[in-house]
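User: Structure tokens for this complex, please. No commentary.
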Amino acid sequence: MSQKTTQKSAVRAENERMILKAAEAVFADHGFRGATTGMIAERAGIPKANLHYYFPTKEALYRRVVEHIFNIWLDAANSFDESDDPVEALTAYISKKMDISREHPMGSKVWANEILHRAPVIQDYLETTLRDWTASRASVIERWIAQGRIAPIDPNALLYMIWATTQHYADFNHQIDTLNGGRPLTGEQFAEAKKTVIQIVLAGIGAAPVSLARDASARASGDTEAAE
Amino acid sequence: MSQKTTQKSAVRAENERMILKAAEAVFADHGFRGATTGMIAERAGIPKANLHYYFPTKEALYRRVVEHIFNIWLDAANSFDESDDPVEALTAYISKKMDISREHPMGSKVWANEILHRAPVIQDYLETTLRDWTASRASVIERWIAQGRIAPIDPNALLYMIWATTQHYADFNHQIDTLNGGRPLTGEQFAEAKKTVIQIVLAGIGAAPVSLARDASARASGDTEAAE
DNA sequence: AATGATCTTGACCGTTTGGTCAAGTGTTCA
DNA sequence: TGAACACTTGACCAAACGGTCAAGATCATT
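Assistant:
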């Protein structure tokens, strides 16, 4: 009786993990209403009734998936605080968020779906954790502005821009792939995109020098000689 | 017999308009699977059977809604070509896309939902119209780079950044509102956000001066003083 | 070996959904 | 006036869905 309450049996832990993994994929592809418990069970390789043994309702399962995603988001958020230097902090944050979009696109999609539909399940997170985090980082950005380290811009608009752009590579990856000839971005292409995003944001707020085309140097591999 | 084929009866035109308007709102709020024809009919103020008289299937109705949205998107896309000057062209384009997000958030949400779920209905648009438009504008951007008018950046990444950021104000408006104390952005707040987005993008690609807090003047080229 | 707890599963059920249908009501025009 | 046509609508149906259940299989503990 002691072990069971503290440590869910290994079978249970393993099955919950498999189900949650399958659920994330199915919810990402079809949304909450579009996903069926049958689809999730099939993807997890178990009968539907077994899924309902571990997760009584579809909503409980969905909530667990969203909570997991929110934790990943929070994890990335910490990289904002790695340094008090705007260039270092924003580079680390954008870089981490881009990595998550690449490695965890399904989680991002579930989150996007939830917000799109007015956050019926996770509104409380938005009003507590997310609101606090955002307000605190906005004030960091305002301090940078006051110190003259970056140009005066709307801090929230900057944060939204970073969120929107980085998450776009997960949420809209189907569109990006289609525009890339139907193939996913290669590692090099993704690295180039990440570099561009960081460069535009940093230069955009006056936190890094803008290198115009003419002066050579530049380690840039993408040589811009183009049309002749 | 002549008039009927060329001009749908006024009744039909008016009813289709009302249904499409209701459908856009319901699809935006609930997604394709989440929306029911019953909800749409109720919102349009007609019995469900009447809705099916005008639109035989839910999918046909959905497709009409998405087509309408795509046309709005294309309309905005034209503002990219208003000028060959990077500053003017991008300012017009971003401005127009922000306005659409403000005035047409539901359309944007339907589009986002469709891409999120791998574009089951409008994949053909992505592969034709959207692909052509994007390739052509990417080459305009590449020319600007070759002419040294903007910094060398990945053109697609720039376009994605603009799409992501501007559409974020529609697709994620619930999150933005929540972080704004539960209230929608005022006109002034939205104008400020728009200004910030334009400023960051233009400065980010070296197409506009970065004005640091202290020195007011100068579009100075060599302004790489940064941290002190 | 026995006992209780955990886990598995096919069959089942009430509800919701997209869509149909037939019986109507208006409307147009010869 | 009347007949062809467009529109309206309550009632209905088969399929799909989330969830239940009871009977069995497996496992841990003594």
